[in-house]
Write a structure and sequence with these properties.
The chain is of the alpha/beta class. The chain has a domain at about 40-165 and about 220-315: Alpha/Beta hydrolase fold, catalytic domain (Rossmann fold, 3-Layer(aba) Sandwich), CATH 3.40.50. It is about 40% helix and about 10% strand. Strands 2-1-3-4-5-8 form a 6-stranded parallel β-sheet, with helices on both faces. It has a two-stranded antiparallel ribbon with strand order 6-7. The protein binds 2-acetamido-2-deoxy-beta-D-glucopyranose (3 copies). One 2-acetamido-2-deoxy-beta-D-glucopyranose (NAG) binds near residues 94 and 184. This is Palmitoyl-protein thioesterase 1.
Length: about 325
């Protein structure tokens, strides 16, 4: 009898503890109603970049200037910049997303925030979306992506002649895009998606086919978590020749010469990942910016940070009916 009782006591204590740990966000939300502190901002950089790059730090500084007091966290796959840069090309994205989830959930400040905002550059955009779908702890309020490949790429980008990491990574392709060897090692192969090889993609894609819920068995959490966002802002660069096709930034499918808009796709009509529900509540924003891939001005970044990031309270106050609907498309 005694051991059983003891076990029960332990179990109860365990439950209480879990409850307390699971709920600090909830309890803090009330206090935060009158709090001007901006939500922390998590940034995930793109291919060939590192968390320590000057350009990226400059973006973080702008975010802090626009919303003073913003804590900026830069996602990294290694603590040294060169290791992190190399991980933009090499590795298994299942492990990368899991590491980002674990690091964010263990961060002393991020983990106690009522929510966070997220900013993804290029491939970092689809990776942060995977964070929302798979983990979302702490939950993301607004996710902004610039030139991301949400519907994958149909061609691999060219490497610069002296870009040895890129050249080394692309040499892996000799193994064939769909081989397990390549799918577990070459990052861009894990979001390669050619409608002409759709069956191979469905069978072998280690990342995108799963995160876009394209397989017959759907993950309902993916759908639920995206629908919970306040905003998903998708920026496409009008003259993007680096991310092919550029329309992937808007979840559009380019099949030959035909461009199929998101709202005409089954991904949307059957709401595989919550985009339709998000759209209906006014949270899905399609935006264009002139210029080539990732040619961003401070002006555009400032406007973006003012519109989507900042304190919890302000966003509630300025959320009027004029901001809802399809006006952005
Ligand atoms: C990637 O990693 C996950 C988890 O570690 C593993 O289950 C999966 O098989 C790996 N993918 C490939 C293509 O090897
Ligand atoms: C792409 O277009 C081809 C030819 O029209 C068609 O057979 C194929 O099913 C399309 N693929 C997808 C994924 O829609
Ligand atoms: C961006 O915002 C910061 C902070 O408000 C300001 O100092 C800077 O001049 C702005 N830059 C542009 C180009 O608007």
């Amino acid at each position: 009898m005694a051991p059983h009782r003891q076990l029960k006591k332990l179990f109860t204590a365990g439950l209480l503890l879990t409850g307390a740990l699971a709920n600090p966000l909830k309890r803090r939300t009330d206090d935060d109603e009158d709090d001007d502190t901006p939500l922390p901002l998590v940034i995930w950089h793109g291919l060939g970049d590192s968390y320590a790059a000057d350009g990226l730090r400059g973006v973080g500084e702008l975010a802090e200037a626009v919303n003073p007091g913003t804590l900026v966290y830069y996602v990294r796959m290694a603590d040294d910049a060169s290791g992190d840069q190399s991980a933009t090309f090499f590795g298994n994205l299942t492990d990368h997303i899991a590491k980002a989830c674990a690091d964010i959930a263990a961060h002393p400040i991020l983990s106690t925030a009522p929510a966070i905002d997220a900013l993804g550059f290029s491939q970092g955009g689809q990776f942060l979306r995977a964070y929302v779908q798979r983990c979302n702890n702490p939950p993301v309020r607004s996710l902004v992506t610039f030139g991301s490949q949400h519907n994958g790429i149909t061609a691999f980008r060219e490497c610069g002649t002296t870009d040895w990491i890129c050249r080394g990574a692309m040499a892996l392709l000799k193994g064939g895009t769909w081989s397990t060897f390549v799918q577990s090692r070459l990052v861009p192969a894990q979001y390669f998606r050619d409608p002409a090889q759709y069956d191979k993609y469905l069978e072998s894609s280690n990342f995108l086919a799963d995160i876009n819920n394209e397989r017959p068995i759907k993950n309902y959490n993916y759908n639920k978590n995206i629908a919970k966002l306040e905003n998903l802002a998708l920026y496409m660069f009008e003259d993007d020749t680096t991310a092919i096709p550029k329309e992937s930034a808007w979840f559009e499918e380019v099949n030959g010469t035909e461009i199929i808009p998101l709202r005409a796709r089954r991904l949307y009509s059957e709401d595989w990942i919550g985009l339709r529900e998000l759209d209906r509540k006014g949270g899905l924003k399609f935006k264009t910016i002139p210029g080539e891939h990732m040619k961003l001005t401070d002006k555009i970044l400032n406007e973006t940070f003012a519109e989507f990031f900042g304190p919890l309270k302000l966003k509630k106050a300025d959320k009027g009916p004029t901001r809802l609907g399809d006006g952005d498309l």
